[in-house]
Design goal:
By secondary structure, the chain is α+β, with helices and mostly antiparallel strands. Helices cover 34% and strands 42% of the residues. Strand 4 and strand 5 form a beta hairpin. Helix 1 packs antiparallel against helix 2 and helix 2 runs antiparallel to helix 3. The radius of gyration is 16 Å and the shape is elongated. The model has no long low-confidence stretch (mean pLDDT 90).
Amino acid sequence: MAQDLEARIARLEAFRDICNVQGRYNHYLATGQLADKAHELFAMKTPGLKAEMADSGLWEGPEAVGKLFQHLGTKYNMLGALFVHALLTPVLEVNADATRARGMWNSLGMNTYVANSGSLDAMWQLGKYDNTFVKEDGRWKILEFRWYVSFR
């Protein structure tokens, strides 16, 4: 019975910690810090790291994932930029030994971006995160990152 309780507590703590990882991801992206902070959020030492972001393609491995978020930092980080995305409807399933998890969130946001013409354009968008998390060095991190756009 004590083992069952400990396992339950570990999964509850995992839920909180993983939600915090996802929340920090949103914060770092919105504040232009993600390229520098990616090592805090992504499982850079665990084989199978990949990120897929809507129309930005599939990026595999630590170096490629880092480049993706450098690219996004450039695309959305400019004077007068707006980047507000809410994480909604979390669904998180943690495995029995609290070493791996899957998480999904809807994300409704409004932001600006630099258009090909050089103008600052605004948009609404809705998407869904569908991520796999693993424990790396005792901390939850993102192993497989996916964000699918529903509309823009």
